[in-house]
Amino acid sequence: MATRLSAETELAVRARIGYFRDLGVFDFYRRGSAPAEIETISVTEEDSAAAPSALETTLKPTTTSALLEPKTPAAPGDRAAALAAIRDDLGPCTRCALHKGRHNIVFGDGDANARLMFIGEGPGADEDAQGLPFVGRAGQLLNNMINAMGLRRDQVYIANIVKCRPPQNRVPEPEEANTCSPFLFRQIDAIQPEVIVALGATAATYLLGAKSPLAALRGRIHHARGVKLIITYHPAYLLRDPRQKKEAWADLQLAMAELGLQAPAK
Question: Is 97 found in the same domain as 215?
Fold first, then answer.
């Protein structure tokens, strides 16, 4: 006969289920088992023994349609107001552990009516200090990439999967990214860009709701929240390996073709 978990452990499990419900995740399955309603889950020591695989599943990028499907876009004149409302809802956020080490929330920057949106992984030290995305060395390279497309930085919108700097610039934990990304999705819904360029594997993972090698994702059109999505290398990676800039330029040209842009004459 299965032994029930302690009251403290059961409370923690129920809190975790509530957390994922708040994110719009309502179905929880153990691998190899038939779907079951959340309300019928019995929290036992037997379940605890199977927990590693179950938690591994829930801590991966959420793929629930509630998060990935587009919402009704704001009217063009209302988009700046919609972004301001999202920022107000975010408030002095303490929803995940990243707030403990941050100096500034990095919400986003750019034109609320942008046709093109860039999404990276998370703020670095310079961004954390200034409260703006992509203002360090990687940001300078991103600015050059935008200019090469025939655009200015103030004509696009730039944001990240998480809005607080992870310690030592590590990759955001799934719980951190899944907590923060709903605000990003609301930003996308408000702006309704024609094209999103995901900068790096982390941005691609949480926009697509699944993890795949970057090489398998590049060179074609995906979709995120009803918007065309193109995936390329993160500028920080390009600084470490400049040989890949040619490949990144090919990705940007794909975005330019979708937007009807031509590179400026040299």
Answer: yes
- Return the SS3 of 5: coil
Closest residue by Cα to residue 200 from 227, 239, 228, 163: 239
- Distance, CA of 241 to chain centre: 24
- Cβ(38)–Cβ(17) below 8 Å: yes
Percent of the chain whose pLDDT exceeds 90? 70
Mean pLDDT (whole number) for 129-156: 98
Let me know if residue 171 belongs to a domain. yes
Are 50 and 143 in the same domain?
no
- 87: closest CA among 166, 206, 173, 184? 184
pLDDT at 265: 84
Give the domain range for residue 229. Answer: 71-259
Q: Are 202 and 161 within 8 A, CB to CB?
A: yes
Q: Per-residue pLDDT tens for 52-64? A: 333 333 345 654 4
Residue whose C-alpha is closest to residue 108's, from 176, 182, 179, 160 = 160
Classify residue 24 by its DSSP letter: T
In which element (H, E) is residue 85 found?
helix 79-90
- Give the total number of structural domains in the chain: 2
Tell me the mean pLDDT in the region 81-89: 97
47-83 as b/e: b if 16+ CB within 10 A: bbeeeeebeeebeebbeeeebbeeeebbeeeebeebb
Distance from chain centroid for Cα 85 = 19
